[in-house]
């Protein structure tokens, strides 16, 4: 059996030049409410920086403040519009590497802790085969709570979702592209791992031929 090749990409900071969540929140609620919220949430950010609360807890508090009470339909419309703006944040070298894998008929996977409501339309437009993101929960009245449905797609959870895709490890050659501690487990799991670069892998259990492309 021929080895199947899977290329997994983190999004924020790997494909983009920075974070996408806060730009999305600013787009969704408007500049005035967004910056007012930053002041209101300053204690949350401080507790996160002091490691009193986790990334998971801080993120849910931020999302609850900005997005609770909105309908899924409302946010989906905003997400589709925001997805069209994401390309302004995308690194050209990231698009070239994604395209290389796709031209070689490799399976491409987007695995990100950011929200499905805007990453899914972007990933579909860019022909990703699988999309693993963070989902927002809905309450009994059909309104967004700001809390997660399931787990934040970060760290171990990213790896767990990819493992559900890879049934037999020996059948696959895995590439991973990441830029933060939230990607550590997948970077360790992959055969060829790239950290904050598309040029020289930090780990190579296989001799990649695509390094000459960029």
Protein described:
The chain is an alpha/beta fold and 214 residues long. The chain has a single domain, classed as Rossmann fold (3-Layer(aba) Sandwich). 43% of the residues lie in helices and 19% in strands. It is built from nine helices and eight strands. It has helices at residues 21-29, 31-40, 42-49, 55-67, 72-85, 92-103, 116-125, 156-165, 184-189; strands at 4-9, 107-115, 130-134, 136-138, 144-148, 172-178, 192-195, 203-204. The strands form two sheets. It has a six-stranded mixed β-sheet. Strands 4-5 form a two-stranded antiparallel ribbon. Helix 3 (42-49) packs antiparallel against helix 4 (55-67) and helix 5 packs across helix 7 (116-125). The longest helix is centred in the middle third of the chain and has 14 residues, at 72-85.
Topology-level CATH name: Rossmann fold
- Please state how the strands of the largest beta sheet are arranged side by side: 3-2-1-6-7-8
Number of strands: 8
CATH architecture: 3-Layer(aba) Sandwich
Strand content: 15-25%
Q: Using only CA atoms, what is the Rg? A: 18 Å
Name of the CATH class = Alpha Beta
How far from one another are the termini? Answer: 30 Å
Average residue pLDDT: 91
Classify the helix fraction into a percent range: 40-55%
Low-pLDDT stretches are: 208-214
Classification by helices and strands? alpha/beta
Order of helices and strands: EHHHHHHEHEEEHEHEE
Number of domains: 1
């Amino acid at each position: 059996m021929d080895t199947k090749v899977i290329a997994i990409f983190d999004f924020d900071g790997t494909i983009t030049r920075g974070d996408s969540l806060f730009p999305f929140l600013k787009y969704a609620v408007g500049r005035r409410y967004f910056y007012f919220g930053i002041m209101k949430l300053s204690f949350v950010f401080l507790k996160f920086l002091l490691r009193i609360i986790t990334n998971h807890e801080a993120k849910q508090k931020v999302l609850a403040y900005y997005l609770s009470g909105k309908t899924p339909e409302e946010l989906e419309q905003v997400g589709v519009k925001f997805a069209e703006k994401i390309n302004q944040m995308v690194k050209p070298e990231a698009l070239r590497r994604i395209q290389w894998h796709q031209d070689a008929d490799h399976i491409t996977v987007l695995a990100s802790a950011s929200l499905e409501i805007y990453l899914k339309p972007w990933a579909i437009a860019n022909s990703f085969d699988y999309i693993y993101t963070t989902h927002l929960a809905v309450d009994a009245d059909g309104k967004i709570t700001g809390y997660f449905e399931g787990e934040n797609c970060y760290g171990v959870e990213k790896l767990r979702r990819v493992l559900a895709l890879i049934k037999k490890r020996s059948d696959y050659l895995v590439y991973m592209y990441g830029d933060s501690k939230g990607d550590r487990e997948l970077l360790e799991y992959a055969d060829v791992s790239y950290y904050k670069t598309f040029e020289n892998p930090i780990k190579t259990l296989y001799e990649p031929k695509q390094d000459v492309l960029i």
